[in-house]
Design brief:
The protein is of the alpha+beta class and 504 residues long. The protein contains 19 helices and 13 strands. It has helices spanning 3-14, 47-53, 55-69, 91-97, 106-120, 192-195, 197-216, 235-246, 275-278, 280-294, 310-324, 326-343, 357-360, 364-375, 382-390, 424-447, 451-462, 469-482, 488-498; strands spanning 17-22, 25-30, 73-78, 84-87, 122-129, 135-140, 145-149, 155-160, 169-171, 176-180, 222-225, 267-270, 350-354. It has a three-stranded antiparallel beta sheet. It has a three-stranded antiparallel beta sheet with strand order 6-5-10. A three-stranded antiparallel beta sheet has the order 7-8-9, with no helix packed on it. A hairpin with an 8-residue loop joins β8 and β9 (169-171). α17 crosses α18 (469-482). The radius of gyration is 36 Å and the shape is flat.
Length: 504
């Protein structure tokens, strides 16, 4: 069996399909190639079966794969001066960042890579030549690949055995890029899932019991009791009671919703089942948290939001790409830069990296404020803004960067003045005076403090926020003495009325 048949089997296994017709047109229908839905016991199940049937394991693995695959892998070429230029045209950049082979995109390539790594703790890329003589990247499921070792860590070759094929295909180690997690015994299974088998087994039997309960247990929500001392019933009396009672229940009862009169000591009792009685909800949460803990993911990122707030989730999202996904991203980048790029004959100085910074940036408002402060002037032209945010065509004269008339390079302060927005001095002075007035309203009645000390303290607090802090402090206390009962806002309003152009 050749490599071509192996690739065909891999494509068939990745996107199984069956022919069909929809509204008179031939279509391909995606189907599940794994067969039936009978869940095997976790202690005997393969890793692929555990991924298929264990919801928390699948949630974690898919979470890793989706969040790394969505990061754009970018290629750069480092210049002698240390600067880097984006590489969009080279063959290596195309194979790694756009289309690795004839049937996959880069998103699918990295989704497959991360899924295999998280499930099997190993993944493999094979560099194969197509009909045009070009090198392509082909991943195969880790369960198909067996490395044959020649010594402690040296691999003599790799064997790829597709399902239903009698003989494996041997591939030279130089045509393979292995992504392998640490393993104390090379060649042995070292998946994190092995650590979780007991937890998954417990979850399996818990879910199985719940299904059995709902299938086989009684569905009675309420029942009626009649004391043994009540008068005996014959069939006519019993039928008459049930006929009366059905008038008060169901969708068709003529008196449904009203209250029946139960005679002879008859009582209506409740027998409804609640999950809290069996603590099923708590066991499900514990299973999810345990799987997330082993894979080092914050459970809140997987939907367990007990005790979380908006501020917490914002920080969890920031830490996701640094603490949770960061080590795996670094591992993948290093393997590609050291081993994949030379195999794709990339130019010297070429390197790749995931665009993690795009995810770590704040909102556009935060970025705009930070850039405006750092640059000291507007940083987008009109045409850039039209294209970036509205997908509008450029306009004539829109490529010039507009600088407001009140902003001069090297003269007038910048729009943000190092981070302080216009009017920040006035706002700071307002805040200081307000706190000062509130403090003296509490201290003077109790301790009888005198004006000179308060005036001196206010002048010290205002230093750096107004041109003449001593004069402003004196004026504040003049206004207080002129009208002791004036509110805080009244004092500040009086100051602004005296001089609209002052710092206050």
């Amino acid at each position: 069996m050749g490599v071509g048949k192996i690739i065909a089997a891999a494509i068939r296994d990745r996107v199984p399909r069956a022919a069909g017709v929809f509204e008179g047109r031939p279509v391909e229908i995606f189907v599940n190639s794994a067969g039936g839905s009978s869940e095997p016991a976790p202690e005997k199940a393969t890793l692929a079966a555990l991924w298929k049937f264990q919801p928390h394991l699948r949630t974690v693995i898919d979470f890793y794969a989706r969040n790394i695959a969505q990061l754009a892998l970018q290629a750069f070429v480092r210049a002698p001066d240390g600067s880097s230029e984006r590489d969009r045209t080279s063959y290596a950049a195309h194979r790694l960042c756009v289309q690795p082979n004839g049937h996959m995109t880069s998103y699918e390539l990295f989704y497959d890579l991360v899924s295999n790594l998280q499930l099997y703790n190993r993944a493999y890329w094979f560099f194969l030549t197509n009909a045009a003589g070009e090198t392509e990247i082909h991943p195969f499921p880790a369960s198909w690949v067996t490395p044959v070792y020649d010594g402690y860590a040296a691999v003599s070759h790799y064997e790829i055995l597709a399902p239903k094929e009698p003989e494996p295909v041997k591939v030279k180690p130089e045509d393979c890029l292995a992504f392998e997690g640490w393993n104390p015994a090379p060649g042995a299974e070292s998946s994190l899932v092995e650590t979780l088998r007991l937890v998954l087994e417990e979850n399996h039997h818990s879910r199985k019991y719940r299904v059995q309960f709902w299938r086989k247990s009684g569905r009675v929500g309420t029942y009626l009791t009649r004391p043994v001392t009540a008068p005996a019933w014959d069939d006519t009396a019993r039928k008459r009671f049930y006929t009366m009672f059905e008038e008060f229940v169901g969708d068709k009862g003529r008196r449904a919703g009203s209250t029946p009169l139960l005679e002879d000591g008859i009582e209506l009792k409740r027998a409804a089942f609640t999950s809290a009685d069996e603590q099923w909800a708590e066991s499900v949460k514990l299973s999810l948290r345990t799987v997330a803990q082993v894979y080092q993911i914050n459970p809140a990122m997987l939907g367990d939001i007990d005790g979380t707030t908006y501020a917490n989730m914002r920080e969890f999202n920031r830490s996701l790409y640094s603490n949770t996904l960061g080590p795996l991203v670094r591992f993948i980048e290093a393997r590609i830069n050291v081993f994949a790029l030379p195999r794709l004959e990339a130019a010297e100085g070429t390197f790749v990296e995931f665009n993690v910074q795009e995810k770590l940036r704040g909102s556009f408002e935060e970025q705009a404020s930070l850039l405006s402060t750092a640059i000291g002037a507007p940083w987008l032209t009109r045409n850039e803004g039209r294209q970036k945010f509205q997908n509008l065509p450029p306009i004539e004269g829109g490529d010039e960067l507009i600088t407001p008339l009140n902003v001069l390079v090297g003269g007038q302060t910048s729009p943000q003045d190092g981070g302080a927005p216009p009017g920040a001095g006035k706002t700071a002075a307002h805040t200081i005076i307000r706190k000062h007035l509130e403090r003296i309203s509490r201290v003077i009645p109790s301790k009888g403090m005198t004006r000179p000390r308060f005036e001196k303290e206010l002048a010290e607090d205002l230093t750096g926020h107004t041109d003449d802090p001593a004069a402003l402090a004196q004026r504040v206390h003049d206004l207080i003495e002129a009208n002791p009962n004036a509110p805080v806002t009244g004092v500040i309003s009086s100051l602004e009325g005296e001089n609209r152009d002052s710092a206050v």
